[in-house]
């Protein structure tokens, strides 16, 4: 395994919040559900997860920085030794899926770490995997007052880089949301994507206002 700092693209001074943010970004990009059938990406996902598991543990990070352990978490001079070895204890406790090995070796379960970070940690006992739906994502757009009355065609860029054209309905209200099915964030467990929610904000018109579905006009007049 490579140096965990190199794998994650961080350095020794990187704080835990930034470390978590970096791992989250890489894990979402490299997760096997996002890259089905790509064994190289799957291995990279495991490597990134193992690197984060080591560096997110303050004690293990300190030991690695002092040169006491290898990048995979095993003691210097050993690799994946059994618990019956001279040292005995597994330095990563229950972080892996197989407690018979130290470090991250074959017993390390990147999916467990991923599930813990993104919420809903998996139980230790085996159970059917629930395919959760991806999260919804809210986007805000501003349209002119008259477009809110008559409807308009708008373009929006999603966070995945995809560009969509949407038609706003007639008489749309401030704060009203348009739901785009399946255009939200991807599921991390193989479930359906979430939805994109397009929230409408209406620019003020210099003369017209909308009150109780009626259009009012403020018109300055001169009294002689």
Number of strands: 7
* CATH class descriptor name of the largest domain: Mainly Alpha
The overall pLDDT average reads: 79
Strands across the major sheet, in which order?
A: 1-5-4
Which structural category fits the helices and strands? alpha+beta
| CATH architectural group of the largest domain | Orthogonal Bundle
Terminus-to-terminus distance: 87 Å
**Main beta sheet, described?**
3 strands, mixed
- Individual helix count: 6
Indicate the CATH topology of the largest domain. Answer: Helix Hairpins
Tell me about this structure.
Helix content is 27%, strand content 17%. The chain is built from 6 helices and 7 strands. The longest helix is centred in the first third of the chain and has 17 residues, at 39-55. It has helices spanning 4-8, 16-30, 39-55, 58-65, 110-118, 145-150, and strands spanning 137-143, 152-157, 163-168, 177-180, 196-202, 208-211, 214-217. It has 2 domains: 4-118, DnaJ domain (Helix Hairpins, Orthogonal Bundle); 137-217, Urease metallochaperone UreE, N-terminal domain (HSP40/DNAj peptide-binding domain). The chain has a 3-stranded mixed sheet. A two-stranded antiparallel ribbon has the order 2-3. With 224 residues, it is α+β, with helices and mostly antiparallel strands. It is elongated. Helix 2 runs antiparallel to helix 3 (39-55) and helix 3 (39-55) crosses helix 5 (110-118).
């Amino acid at each position: 395994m490579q140096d965990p700092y190199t794998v994650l693209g961080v350095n020794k001074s990187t704080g835990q919040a930034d470390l978590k943010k970096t791992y989250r970004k890489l894990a979402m990009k490299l997760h096997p559900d996002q890259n089905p059938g790509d064994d190289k990406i799957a291995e990279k996902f495991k490597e990134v997860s193992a690197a984060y598991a080591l560096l997110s543990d303050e004690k293990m990070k300190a030991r690695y920085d002092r040169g006491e352990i290898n990048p995979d978490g095993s003691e210097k001079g050993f690799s994946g030794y059994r618990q019956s070895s001279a040292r005995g204890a597994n330095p990563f406790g229950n972080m892996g899926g197989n407690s018979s090995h130290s470090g991250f070796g074959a017993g390390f379960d990147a999916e467990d770490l991923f599930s813990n970070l993104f919420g809903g940690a998996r139980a230790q006992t085996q159970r059917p995997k629930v395919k959760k739906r991806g999260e919804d994502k809210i986007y805000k757009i501003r349209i002119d007052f008259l477009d809110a009355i008559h409807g308009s065609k708008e373009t929006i860029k999603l966070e995945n880089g995809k560009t969509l054209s949407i038609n706003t309905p007639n008489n749309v209200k401030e704060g009203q949301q348009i739901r785009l099915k399946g255009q939200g964030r991807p599921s991390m467990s193989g479930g359906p994507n979430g939805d994109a929610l397009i929230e409408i904000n209406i620019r003020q018109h210099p003369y017209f206002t909308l009150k109780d579905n009626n259009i009012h006009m403020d018109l300055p007049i001169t009294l002689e």
